[in-house]
Design a protein that fits this description.
4-stranded mixed β-sheet; 7-stranded mixed β-sheet; 14 helices
Length: 395
């Protein structure tokens, strides 16, 4: 007989109820192959679910912060041209790093690509956070609630997650985060705009935060949604990286560029950090297809910007519509809005589901709703208009 961890049992239950029953009824055996104990302590990543089909309604998925618009035509052309998939890709993504160097005015050697910005973050954590030879864990500080993959990748790296609650308006509590940094802290992650709550971090407060933490702590600025930001005071991670040697920047082609399925992201760090990242970086994480698609998207900056602006205008329409019916939400600067519905979060998601909309509920906290097609956004507003509970923010 085989012993299974509770994580394995839960995963099997989600995939196949019959398998879950079999696992639950299987006697435990001490000498069976076992996963690392940390697996039982990690939360499960919950991807946004697709919408349920409702007769007479077009279903829309607003649960994964995906760009509802396809990539620009040049990207599709670049993908079609890639016929060398029987060859391994360039492990260093040299062509893409060169294009990013020109686009962002940074040295190509400071760029390390990864499988999305999450892959780039995972490489950073595997390099700078974990369990030391004396058994003591490094600590990684981040705001919470924030990107739900953070505790997973911190835990799998072997480090200890230190979660600092966000303020009522969804912003990072940078004072509390600075107070949480100690001699065991090796990495701090700042998510701006914060996923799922929406607000950005401002330049002055980030600079004050960086000045308040030791210079041997790596400050990672996660800017997955930076192209959607329209606040002039928003921090610019590239500027912080240029100014402070202990800053790393994360960016991705998944959101604004619409390449989520191709998994292209990257980090930007100073040479003394980048040199270590290259030792850990996953070889061949970015395929040639993905690399050439990303390059084509960078070359089509005007077309990409135009599409992003159309989504920003839709976001503004949604925000105005919510305000009109008395719904209070944190200021959104990504391609999503946050409804602080607390214990009503799951109920609202189920209600949206009866109208062929899938949204992302975080039980007892809130609901994140992606900005989608105009028809989807209009239906979302109508659902909110008819829903009896309004989210409020404390004053």
């Amino acid at each position: 007989m085989t012993q299974f961890s509770s994580a394995a049992r839960a995963d099997a239950g989600e995939q196949n109820p019959e398998t879950a029953t079999e696992l639950q009824n299987t006697p435990l055996q001490a000498n069976a192959v076992q996963p690392r104990p940390v697996l039982d302590r990690l939360p499960k990543y919950a991807a946004g679910k697709p919408p349920v089909s409702i007769e007479g309604l077009t279903p829309f998925k607003l649960s994964s912060n995906e760009n509802p618009l396809p990539p620009v035509p040049a990207v599709l052309d670049a993908i079609r041209e890639q016929i060398g998939i029987f060859r391994y890709p360039d492990p260093l993504s040299t062509a893409l790093r060169g294009a990013l160097s020109e686009h962002l005015d940074v040295p190509a050697d400071d760029v390390v690509t990864g499988a999305g910005s999450l892959g780039a973050l995972t490489q950073i954590l595997n390099t700078f956070a974990g369990q030391n030879e004396d058994g003591v864990q490094d600590e990684v500080v981040y705001a919470w609630r924030s990107f739900e993959a953070y505790p997973i990748v911190v835990g799998t790296a072997g480090a200890r997650a230190v979660e600092v609650p966000v303020l009522d308006d969804g912003r990072h509590d940078l004072d509390a985060m600075a107070a949480a940094v100690n001699e065991r802290t090796t990495v701090v992650v700042l998510c701006t705009p914060n996923n799922p709550t929406g607000p950005i971090l401002r330049t002055a407060e980030v600079e004050q935060f960086i000045a308040s933490v030791p210079q041997n702590v790596l400050v990672v600025i996660d800017e997955a949604y930076t192209e959607f930001v329209r606040d002039d005071d928003a921090v610019n991670g590239i500027e912080m990286y240029r100014k402070y040697p202990n800053v790393a920047v994360l960016r991705t082609f998944s959101k604004a560029h619409g390449l989520a399925n191709l998994r292209v992201g990257y980090s930007i760090t100073r040479p003394q950090i980048t040199a270590h990242l290259r030792v850990i970086a996953t070889p061949f994480a970015v395929s040639t297809v993905a690399e050439q698609a990303a390059i084509a998207s960078l070359k089509s900056e005007d077309a990409v910007t135009e599409r992003v602006e159309s989504l920003v205008q839709e976001r503004n329409r949604v925000v105005a519509g919510l305000a009109e019916i008395g719904w209070e939400i944190p200021e959104p600067q990504g391609n999503f809005v946050w409804l602080k519905l607390g214990e009503k979060a799951v109920d609202f998601a189920e209600y949206a589901g009866t109208h062929a909309l899938s949204v992302r509920a975080f039980a007892d906290e809130g609901v994140r709703v992606s900005i989608g097609e105009p028809e989807a956004n209009s239906r979302f507003l109508e659902i909110c208009r008819n829903y009896p509970t309004k989210p409020r923010l404390s004053k």
